[in-house]
Amino acid sequence: MATNLDWFKQTVDRIAVSDSRRELLSELKVGLCGLSVRDVTTVANVLPLAVIFDTLNTNEKEQLELACDVLGKLLGALEPSVVLAQYGQQIQHTLIHPSPRAKELVLRELDRAVTGRVDMVERLSAEQDLLVCIVDCLCLEELSVARYAISLLKHLGSSPAGLTALYSPVTMQALQTASSKGDIVRFRVYEVVVAVSVESDEGLRASQNSGFLGGMFSELKGDDVLAQLNVLEMTTTLALKQHSLVFLDQQGILDFLAEKLSNSENDPLSSFLVPGLIKFFGNVAQSKPDEMIKRFPSLVSMMFDTLDASDLAVVGTGMETLGFIATTLKGKYMLQSLGTRLPETMRKMVEKLPSLPIEMKVRLLNTIANILQLNVSDQNNQSLSMTKRWFEALSPQPMDFVMALCRQPFPETRLAGFQLMHVLATNPWGQEYIVRAPGVVEYLMDRLTESVKSCKDAKFEVVRSLVASPSSSTVMSPDVLDQLRQFMEQGEFYARGETEVAIEGAS
């Protein structure tokens, strides 16, 4: 390595004074590709990378690409603190480089530096001029560059020092200037603000004081449907966290959106917002099911009604939202409080399946699986009895329905069927259905019935869940349980040898 290290030093020294930088960069790139990760780190720590940064100052596309490749390799091998400490000036200069590729290179390294590193976030927070350059990158047409800038600013807002720097007068001015440069850039700024808002109470307060949240909500109440759709999606993100959901309620956003959804049939433009509105209130219902049913009972009813919608996008969103609400035990109890509405809807879903395209079939089947799924910690007499009734509402012979799915010709449908079977395998009443249905256990242990790997994996997971379930020993006989354990220990790709088959035949 010593000789190689000398060669790398000499090559960089030559680059500093040579007119043949492109050829030397090419040699350097080839040399680096031949090194181990450890050796690249050694080289990166001894070479003066400022020389390589200087080669970015060119109009030759090939030289620029080579310089970015070499810098990407070397910077990626350095500790983030070293990159910022030794090459902060070069990084800032590169952020105003006309080449998007060069900008992306240093933004990627900065993003790597601050990911999971509070100390680096605080260090970056002190570099005010650098932060302004990062904000300016939000305005670029190249999405890859803008995404790194967005990620960096989100990380910045995750710490107290970074939050102060993000909403300092200088950075705020840069954000406001960026927002004025068109819809795309403005919504990139909103994305940063929303991410900071959901991170903490402090982030939410700072974002509110900045005025950006107020501007975003004004667009939600405007006449531009496309802008409303984008803001609605971001508002849904705010609804995912308790502190920001409370804020939305205090700002009157919940009541405003509830009225908009209720009146959607009378407003042709609002119909475009229906899937997003349903998704929004699904998140609210999942977080606060009791409050949702008390304050907005008509909206919960509308979610069930979406199954009969002519627009499949509305059907899919509505049913998936019901499934999302049911991912918590409180959500399940809220749906149970509606009487027969949920089991009737589940039966209608099954009846509707034959007329739907495969993608929509899978979405509805996954919804059914979410509704029936019970974590072991949530299993009690009430919840088990409730989900069993829902399963039995699917069809007069619900286990035949599940097995028919697992034998469908399309892998996507079979995979959804195995997901349903997996749900059954994780609770006592489901295990009883599996054990008592003729031929189901034998089917699960037959490795020849499935050739698609994803389906084979899913089928094997059903057996694994049966064996691992704490209730399996009380539901299944010792012989069946031993067979399943042996099957699992042998693995999903086990094949019996010829000698083993011959001995078994002779006996």
Automatic annotation (TrEMBL):
Pfam families, A to Z: Proteasom_PSMB (PF10508)
Protein's name according to its UniProt entry: 26S proteasome non-ATPase regulatory subunit 5
Entries under SUPFAM superfamilies matching the protein: ARM repeat
GO cellular component, one term: cytosol
Family assignment from sequence similarity: Belongs to the proteasome subunit S5B/HSM3 family.
GO terms of biological process kind: proteasome assembly
Gene3D superfamilies: Leucine-rich Repeat Variant (1.25.10.10)
